[in-house]
């Protein structure tokens, strides 16, 4: 009725492997973010240097206004791209964590089902209704978890769509504003 030491050791080993994989994913994401920050910083510095050099030789106010507005577009696009890349990196780690949690939940459900089956087999006569109630409660809890998981995934997808739409709208607005100026 109780799990043997080999089964406990296997569960422990799986937990350590999962923890190691998730930690590596976070470290990889941190490394990607650091590289992204450095490359974006360099690019923004280059953009600013080019813009400053362009502006320093201008003597006409209209030409200055045009140059300043045009010099903002590359930086604005770069910042928008940076935000998308950060979101992708963080989203990738989140997806790995979600996958690991889902795998853990599935393993837990299987183990729980094994325990329930073992208890049902070893239950005293006359306890069938209690075992049936217990199985029903477990099925209800599993169904609720699945519904919450689906809702979370839909929310994540809606957030991704909103971010993409907002980035596109901001870029379009900036482009229109620079054409007006």
Name a few traits of the molecule.
181 residues; mainly alpha
Task: Draw up the topology in text.
Elements: H1 5-56, H2 61-122, H3 128-180
Brief summary:
The chain is mostly helical and about 180 residues long. It has one domain.
Walk me through the structure.
This protein is 92% helix and 0% strand. By secondary structure, the protein is mostly helical. The protein has one domain. The mean pLDDT is 81.
Radius of gyration computed on alpha carbons: 28 Å
Query: In percent, how much strand structure appears in the residues?
Result: under 5%
Count of alpha/pi helices:
3
Helical content stands at over 70%
Quickly give the structural class. mainly alpha
Outline type: elongated
N-to-C series of helices and strands? HHH
Q: What about the largest sheet?
A: none
Q: Kindly give the count of domains.
A: 1
Mean pLDDT: 81
The strand count comes to 0
Residue runs with pLDDT of under 50 for 5 or more positions: none
Distance between the termini: 78 Å
């Amino acid at each position: 009725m109780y799990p043997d030491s080999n089964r406990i050791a296997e569960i422990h080993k799986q937990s350590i492997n999962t923890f190691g994989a998730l930690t590596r994913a976070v470290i990889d994401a941190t490394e990607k973010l650091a590289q992204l920050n450095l490359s974006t910083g360099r690019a923004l510095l280059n953009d600013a240097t080019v813009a400053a050099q362009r502006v320093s030789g201008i003597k006409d106010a209209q030409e200055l206004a045009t140059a300043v507005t045009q010099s903002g577009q590359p930086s604005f696009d770069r910042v928008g791209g940076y935000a998308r890349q950060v979101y992708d990196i963080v989203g990738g780690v989140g997806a790995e964590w979600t996958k690991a949690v889902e795998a853990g939940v599935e393993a837990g459900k299987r183990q729980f089902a094994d325990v329930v089956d073992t208890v049902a087999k070893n239950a005293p006569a006359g306890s069938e209704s209690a075992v049936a109630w217990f199985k029903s409660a477990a099925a209800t809890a599993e169904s609720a978890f699945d519904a919450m998981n689906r809702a979370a995934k839909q929310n994540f997808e809606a957030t991704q769509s909103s971010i993409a739409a907002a980035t596109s709208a901001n870029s379009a607005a900036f482009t229109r504003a620079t054409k007006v100026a």
